[in-house]
Write a structure and sequence with these properties.
The structure holds 2 protein chains of 2 kinds. By secondary structure, chain A is an alpha+beta fold. Chain A is 24% helix and 36% strand. In chain A, helix 2 (92-102) packs across helix 3, helix 2 (92-102) packs parallel to helix 4 and helix 3 (107-120) packs across helix 4. By secondary structure, chain B is mainly α. In chain B, 75% of the residues lie in helices and 0% in strands. The longest helix of chain B has 42 residues, at 2-43. Chain B starts with a helix and ends in a 5-residue tail after the last helix. The chains are: A alpha+beta, B mainly alpha. Chains A and B meet through strand 6 and helix 2 of A and helix 8 of B.
């Protein structure tokens, strides 16, 4: 059964349509990420699920119960906020038990719950401190503790890691993931960070302009993005887009390309059925940087490959890999090569395209061709 | 050479310091002078005042003037000192300060945490209230007090000061609450707390810095008010500021400067006390919103 169902939800602020016909189904125990650039409506959607904001139209069901007209406290949810939102006048213990006190849970049970939560989050020694005496990471842990204490049907996270520094963010990310696995909780998690989305989610909803562009498991979104927006938003450095014309080449088809040395074609083995109808027309070829590598690291196999020497315009070492930029069809194309194999800027090196990993988009509709 | 320059610079620094301190001392003396004159004059006998000069120390220290100012001096036709009026002032200043502060806190809470359609317009209109001069509201206020049946009463003065103070207290609290993370109220709502519970259990307990500012401001304003006091009360119900004026301007008999001075100090003491007690929180509260903690 689905823990959360969002059906045809719309939200209009005056003339602005913030959310248009959102449909979302979240299964029990799922960790769903709402990800998108700022202003895409993800936080508004979360607030509507929480009951902190009202939808203009549509329905929200939690565990099969219609909750549209219920206030946040009656929806059996817990929420973790970006600003931690701890009550500064209360100790950690009081912060965690506040929700229980509001629900008139017996005192002994409150105490037991606080102990249990403190144990899970390893903060027994912090219980009598005030939030102002805690570090950022500890505050975030208390905020999560407050949510866990209530044992709700649904957890909502609103960019909980955005206020932490980079190192702490990675640590807390791991903790949240472990927490999810231990509690088997249903979580809806909002972030603008695509790495958080990829690492945490069992499924990701990529949002833009008040719409869900794609909803699926992380790897599917990464490998088979629904459109140009999803393809460019997920993955860092982002996917290369090469505008090209499909041409017939012998029995197969190929993409017409051009670089500083002149015209060439890249055979598109395995895409015959997909692209033959588009011979003579333009498509956008998308290929991720890790699928254009140096020949030493390249794996040989039956998958379609294409090798060619390219002049390199720019080199960016990142540590584990070095990014080199070659120019194809007038646009820089980012390739991920082994640091030892990278040439200097201005020289040229042989690069291998893993053509079987390429995806194709319609330049008009921006949808992926499938 | 460098050595020489350093000593020269140090010398110039020391000289500058002397000038700065001399100036500071001079200004401090200048501002303390009236207080000095008031205190010494209030401790002198009338003969002493007539014989000596203004700055001379009292030949013989006496508290007669103080006791006369408190319970014997004439304010108009009555000769009971400022005692009655002092307690008058206390009896309407305290409720007026507390009520206006509480309502201001409540307004600020609603205007920041529970925004509604038109809440910004509402706030702007309230702000305009800060710029309305006292004189403008005198007549309509007198009429309103008449309708309400609380003209010439302590309740009436409380009402006037609460209404007039609301604009300021709302402004204080609203600006303080704007700097709080708004997730706090959302979290409390999800936790199951209602509108009033959030106000009492979460918002008010974190407001002391701004409450202090508001209380000092309101206390000073209302205690020192003369115009509303003189217009909306009479006789035994008048506040101390009005009584002080009457005491000083009573023209029968000899001019008792020592009593006038003692009376003026008595009238000013409570505000002085509030500043001494709460003063250090005042600056802290004023700047609390500016720096994100």
């Amino acid at each position: 059964m689905s823990s959360l169902v969002v059906r045809n939800v719309r939200k209009v602020f005056g003339p602005v349509e913030v959310l248009r016909d959102i449909d979302l189904e979240v299964g029990s125990g799922e960790f769903v990420i709402l990800v998108g650039p700022s202003g895409c409506g993800k936080s508004t959607l979360l607030n509507i699920i929480a009951g902190l904001d009202t939808a203009t139209a549509g329905e929200i069901l939690i565990d099969g119960r219609l909750v549209n007209h219920l206030s946040p406290k009656d929806r059996d949810i817990a929420m973790v906020f970006q600003s931690y939102a701890l009550y500064p006048n209360m100790t950690v213990r009081e912060n965690i038990s506040f929700g229980l006190r509001m629900r008139r849970v017996p005192r002994e049970e409150q105490a037991r719950t606080v102990e249990r939560v403190a144990k899970i989050l390893q903060m027994e020694h912090l219980l009598d401190r005030k939030p102002s005496q805690l570090s950022g990471g500890q505050r975030q842990r208390v905020a999560m503790g407050r949510a866990i204490a209530r044992n709700p049907r649904l957890f909502l996270f609103d960019e909980p890691l955005s206020n932490l520094d980079a190192k702490l963010r990675v640590e807390m990310r791991l903790e949240i993931k472990q927490l999810h696995e231990r509690l088997k909780a249903t979580i809806v998690y909002v972030t603008h960070d695509q790495i958080e989305a990829m690492t945490l989610g069992t499924r990701i909803a990529v949002m833009q302009g008040g719409e869900i562009r794609q909803f699926g498991p992380p790897q599917e979104i990464y490998d088979r993005p629904a459109d140009l927006f999803v393809a460019s938003f997920i993955g860092s450095p982002s996917m290369n887009f090469i505008r090209t014309t499909i041409v017939a080449q012998g029995a197969g088809i190929a993409a017409a390309m051009k670089d500083a040395q002149g015209d060439f074609t890249m055979p598109l083995e395995g895409f015959d059925a997909l692209l033959r109808p588009r011979i003579g027309r333009e498509v956008v070829l998308g290929i991720r940087p890790e699928h254009i590598v140096d020949t030493a690291t390249a794996r040989t196999g039956e998958a379609a490959r294409f090798n060619r020497r390219f002049p390199v315009d720019l080199v960016e070492p990142t540590g584990p890999d070095t990014l080199v930029f070659a120019s194809i069809n007038g646009k820089p194309v980012c390739c991920r090569v082994h640091p030892d194999q990278a040439c200097a800027a201005g020289q040229s090196m042989e690069l291998q395209f893993n053509v079987s990993k390429a995806v194709f988009f319609d330049p008009e509709t921006e949808k992926r061709l499938a | 050479m460098a050595e020489l320059q350093r000593t020269r610079a140090a010398g110039a620094g020391a000289a500058g310091r002397v000038v700065v301190y001399a100036l500071l001392v001079a200004f401090a003396l200048y501002y303390l002078m009236p207080l000095f004159v008031m205190v010494t004059t209030s401790l002198k006998t009338l003969d002493d005042i007539r014989a000596g000069n203004l700055l001379a120390l009292p030949g013989q220290v006496t508290f007669d003037a103080w006791s006369r100012a408190w319970s014997g001096a004439c304010t108009g036709v009555r000769c009971e000192g400022l005692r009655v009026n002092f307690w008058n002032s206390v009896s309407f200043v305290l409720p007026a300060v507390l009520i206006s502060t509480l309502i201001g806190a409540f307004n600020g809470y609603v205007l920041t945490m529970w925004r509604f359609r038109g809440s910004d317009v509402m706030f702007t209109m309230l702000l305009l209230g800060c710029f309305i001069p006292f004189q403008v509201v005198l007549l309509p206020m007198a009429q309103t007090l008449g309708y309400l049946g609380i003209a010439n009463s302590i309740a009436g003065l409380v009402f006037v000061h609460v209404v007039y103070g609301l604009a300021f207290t709302t402004l204080f609290f609203r600006n303080f609450y704007v700097s709080l993370p708004d997730g706090m109220v959302k979290a409390a709502r999800v936790d199951g707390a209602g509108f009033f519970t959030i106000f009492w259990r979460i918002i008010l307990p974190i407001s002391p810095p701004i409450i202090v500012v508001c209380v000092i401001w309101q206390f000073t304003q209302i205690w020192n008010d003369f115009l509303f006091g003189v217009v909306f009360s009479s006789g035994e119900r008048q506040p101390i500021t009005v009584a002080l004026n009457n005491l000083v301007n009573t023209s029968t008999g000899v001019k008792e400067y020592n009593v006038d001075m003692a009376a003026a100090i008595i009238a000013g003491l409570p505000t002085l006390l509030v500043y001494v007690v709460a003063g250090k929180y005042f600056m802290r509260g004023l700047t609390a919103g500016a720096v994100k903690g």
